[in-house]
Design a protein that fits this description.
Blueprint: E1 5-10, H1 14-27, E2 31-36, H2 39-48, E3 53-57, H3 65-75, E4 81-85, H4 90-98, E5 103-106, H5 111-141, H6 149-161, E6 168-171, H7 178-187, E7 196-200, H8 206-214, H9 231-234, E8 239-243, H10 250-262, E9 264-266, E10 273-275, E11 279-284, H11 288-293, H12 299-305, E12 308-311, H13 322-337, H14 346-354, H15 361-374, H16 381-388
Parallel strand pairs: 1-2, 1-3, 3-4, 4-5, 6-11, 6-12, 7-8, 8-11
Antiparallel strand pairs: 9-10
Helix pairs in contact: 2-3, 13-15, 15-16
The structure holds adenosine-5'-triphosphate (ATP).
Adenosine-5'-triphosphate is lined by residues 144-146, 172, 174-180, 243, 285, 325, 328, 361-362.
Length: 390
């Protein structure tokens, strides 16, 4: 036996209602079927219980099926609806699909069609739920902990800039959370349904970066044995995150500049341009102004990238966040190790807050991990002094 599915039938005609309930109950012992006589009653049921599927007539007294759909989506957006349309309301049925119904069937319902639609609708619902869970997990991974003024300012800018198409340049020392900022901008944008493609520009040899970013065609160079799309193409309709952009070669910079100016790219070795719709977010720990002065970074590219500039401060400049981050990492590490989270004493917390961090949050996490693994049962001041100094 599989997992049970809760189905609600909404139908004002008692005979049809009874038949539908009976058909579904007989079809599978996994179907738990409930019924309502009109939209109002159904809405109450949907509000107080979770249904995997609602099968609703369109024409009904009090609240009709279309209104029920709209109201139910307000309380439980993930509820899957299949509409039943009678003579003369086919147009409404089509419209309900625009309002979020999964499908509709005509009256009198054909048995096979009804059962197939129910199965498909239930499957689609499972996918939606799985996606929501996955999304929540991803969102949690990129959650930005902190309540200090500088972090709140950054969260504020992210909220404002994310829904726009503006390019963003994120600067700050290593391990301060630049990657998190980039993910948050993507997740809070209308592109979040599509990919965020990350490229670490420092990790790719300069002779390969062009092919990595823009792809290549077969035969473009010795190892190009077949056509391959680049990161810009993969990110189409989504976001590309160019990390460590300060380390990109001047020749690659020129190509990126063209992609930004004209929204077109060319695969290495191809004679055709490709149109791409990609939002660019870049990050660097370098002082790009200085790089420009020294001729290592193109000023025109800088201005194209830094429409919005987000400076992420070092940990030492937002010490108020250290206790929050510490507790966050204590929980995270405990989850990874499958143990109960350790609690640090007030004294240890204060020591961690005063410690001279390089600015790197990764370093804070490592120190906490060391303290959990190597520190005594009760982590002491001596433990901190010993394990914080690598
Ligand atoms: N505000 C924060 N809340 C929770 N975790 C954070 C925060 N900032 C950074 N981290 C964690 O610290 C680590 C380093 O962050 P991240 O990779 O975003 O930094 P970065 O500035 O992009 O680093 P690099 O310059 O080395 O690429 C990651 O594991 C990240 O999850």
């Amino acid at each position: 036996m599989g997992k049970t599915s809760k189905i609600l039938i909404v139908e004002d005609e008692a005979a049809i209602r009874r038949v539908l309930v009976k058909i579904l109950e007989e079809e599978s012992s996994d179907y738990v079927v409930d019924a309502a006589e009109n939209g109002e009653e159904a809405l109450q049921k949907i509000t107080s219980e979770d249904y995997d599927l609602v099968i609703s007539d369109i024409k009904m007294p009090k609240m009709d099926g279309e209104e029920l759909l709209v109201e139910a989506k307000k309380v439980k957006a993930e509820t899957v609806f299949v509409m039943i349309s009678g003579h003369g309301d086919l147009e409404t049925a089509v419209n309900t699909m625009r309002l979020g119904a999964f499908d509709y069937i005509s009256k009198p319902p054909d048995l096979n069609r009804l059962l197939t639609t129910v199965r498909n609708a239930l499957d689609s619902g499972k996918l939606v739920v799985e996606n929501t869970i996955l999304k929540k997990k991803v969102n949690k991974k990129y959650e930005m902990i902190g309540n200090s003024d500088p972090i709140n300012q950054i969260k504020d800018i992210i909220e404002k800039v994310a829904p726009t198409e503006a390019r963003v340049l994120i600067t700050g020392p290593n391990g301060t959370g630049k990657e998190l900022v980039a993910h948050q901008i993507h997740l809070q944008s209308s592109r979040s349904q599509n990919m965020l493609v990350e490229v670490n520009c420092a990790a790719i040899p300069s002779e390969l970066i062009e092919s990595e970013l823009f792809g290549h065609v077969k035969g473009a160079f010795t190892s190009a044995v077949k056509d391959r799309p680049g990161k810009f193409e993969q990110a189409n309709h989504g976001t590309i995150f160019l990390d460590e952009i300060g380390d990109m070669s001047l020749s690659a910079q020129a190509k990126v500049l063209r992609a930004l100016q004209e929204n077109v790219i060319t695969r290495v070795g191809a004679d055709k341009d490709l149109k791409v719709d990609v939002r660019v977010i870049a990050a660097t720990n370098k002082d790009l102004r200085k790089e420009i002065e020294e001729g290592r970074f193109r000023e025109d590219l800088y201005h194209r990238l830094a429409v919005i500039l987000i400076k992420v401060p070092a940990l030492n400049d937002r010490r108020d966040d250290i206790p929050l981050l510490t507790n966050h990492f204590l929980d995270q590490i405990a989850k990874e190790q499958g143990t109960a989270p350790k609690v640090f004493s007030k004294e240890v917390m204060e020591l961690l807050q005063q410690y001279d961090w390089t600015g790197n949050i990764r370093e804070l996490r490592n120190v906490i991990e060391r303290l959990i693994i190597l520190g005594g049962k009760e982590v002491s001041k001596q433990d901190v002094e010993m394990f914080a100094n690598k």
